[in-house]
Specification:
11 strands; 0% helix; 122 residues; four-stranded antiparallel sheet; single chain
Length: 122
């Protein structure tokens, strides 16, 4: 079965950077997504990468600031965040979709990690 474990969250000052990691097991083809949920808000799409890392999609609020990459040897997906804003504060989740269809819809993902908290101070 697919297992996803996120790490790297924490407190950072506005304008700073963080790298989130997602160690995946039991997965191969499909898409890895990063999604986030702020308190009192619905879960929203951040970005995703296909299993080979050749294709990436980002949500408009994070374009140019966030970058997704994949290290196949380590079976790890990364979310590099820079120029962080207080609005980026949320629990960030790593997710996996089994098939080879691009999706920006949170409900379309089949497996989820536990999430890691990212807090950006003003």
């Amino acid at each position: 079965q697919v297992q996803l474990v996120e790490s790297g969250g924490g407190l950072v000052q506005a304008g700073g950077s963080l790298r989130l990691s997602c160690v995946a097991s039991g997965s191969s083809f499909g898409w890895y997504g990063w999604l986030r949920q702020a308190p009192g808000k619905e879960r929203e799409f951040v970005g995703c990468i296909n299993w080979m890392g050749a294709s990436k999609v980002y949500a408009e609020p994070v374009k140019g600031r966030f970058s997704i990459s994949r290290d196949n040897a380590k079976n790890t997906v990364y979310l590099d965040m820079s120029s962080l804003k207080p609005e980026d504060t949320a629990v960030y989740f790593c997710a996996y979709r089994i098939d080879n269809v691009v999706t920006t819809t949170p409900s379309a993902y089949n497996y989820w990690g536990q999430g890691t908290q990212v807090t950006v101070s003003s």
